[in-house]
From TrEMBL:
Pfam families: Agenet. It comes from the Eukaryota. This is DUF724 domain-containing protein 6 isoform X4. Residues 5-72, 75-131, 145-213, 216-272 form the Agenet domain. PANTHER family: AGENET DOMAIN-CONTAINING PROTEIN, AGENET DOMAIN-CONTAINING PROTEIN-RELATED.
Length: 286
């Protein structure tokens, strides 16, 4: 069952910052329910060089999530495992690329592709806050999805500038249980002569989402997918305008773009081998 996020004063949460894929621990100072923002005090970021003065900021709720559950430090990581690495005061996503001596691991950081060594205590299982619950990468891989040739799917991009977007495709063939060749529906090769084919990991593939009853109108702050640059990008309705048009805010780029109603769909997440509608899981408390 999806849980509401308690945003009461003093609650410990995690906050993402502009142009930064890390998550930082912070405490809520004040909730501002009317404008969808909260005032926070960071636990590991400071004002200038004075470490006695924690950094305080007002942040949008779209940059906030609960503090993840404690990690099991007896869990042994393996090459290929998705983790968060504690670096420069924040938890950055990455992937284990090698096991070193003295309980250390070589990690490729997702954003910079930089390889760094981290001790086990500086790592945690990577989890995403989706639909009001925590989902680990290992849990996602345990879900057995039988993708036969021709199966319609959506593929998540890891390419810089397109990270997080989902692109319609079909399965061409399975290379092994963790890797597939796909052919995109709307992306073409550089010379435009044919549809683009790529080999992708199963963790970046999900079934094509089902058609759901189209909403006659979208609401302010409703989570949607927007059709943009041949893919679906998750965003939030930031303004409802006339003639069935909407402004959508994209957290990762802090862009706000206007879309027609026909270029939007209700956002859904693939969780536990089921499609889950976007949760209204923010509980604002004074």
């Amino acid at each position: 069952m999806a849980k509401e996020m308690n945003l009461g004063k003093g609650k410990t949460i995690e906050v993402s910052r502009t142009n930064d894929d890390a998550w930082y621990a912070a405490a809520i100072i004040r909730s501002m329910q009317k404008n969808g923002r909260i005032s926070v005090e960071f636990q590991t970021l400071f004002s200038g060089d004075d470490r006695s003065k924690p950094l305080k900021e007002i942040v949008d709720l779209s940059h906030v999530r609960p503090h993840p559950p404690p990690d099991d430090f007896d869990l042994a990581f393996e090459s290929g495992d998705e983790v968060d690495a504690f670096c420069n005061g924040g938890w950055k996503p990455g992937k284990i690329s090698g096991v070193l001596e003295n309980s250390s691991f070589l990690v490729i950081l997702s954003n910079t592709h930089e390889a760094k060594a981290f001790r086990r205590l500086e790592l945690r299982v990577h989890r995403d806050w989706i639909g009001g619950r925590w989902i680990s990468a290992r849990e996602q891989r345990k879900l057995e999805m039988d993708f036969g040739s021709g199966t319609p799917v959506e593929v998540r991009s890891d390419e810089e500038g397109f990270v997080g977007a989902w692109f319609a495709a079909k399965i061409v063939r399975a290379i092994d249980k963790n890797m597939f060749t796909v052919e995109y529906q709307n992306l073409r090769t550089d010379d435009e002569s044919q549809l683009l084919r790529e080999t992708v990991y199963s963790q970046n593939i999900r079934p094509a989402p089902p058609d759901i009853l189209e909403s006659k109108s979208f609401r302010f702050l409703e989570e949607v997918d927007a059709w943009y640059n041949d893919g679906w990008w998750v965003g939030v309705i930031s303004k409802v305008v006339k003639n069935s048009s909407y402004f959508v805010y994209f957290r990762d780029t802090e862009e706000e773009i206007e879309f027609k109603h026909s270029d939007l769909r209700l956002h859904q997440d693939w969780i536990g081998a089921k499609w889950v509608r976007a949760s209204q899981g923010l509980k604002l408390c004074d």
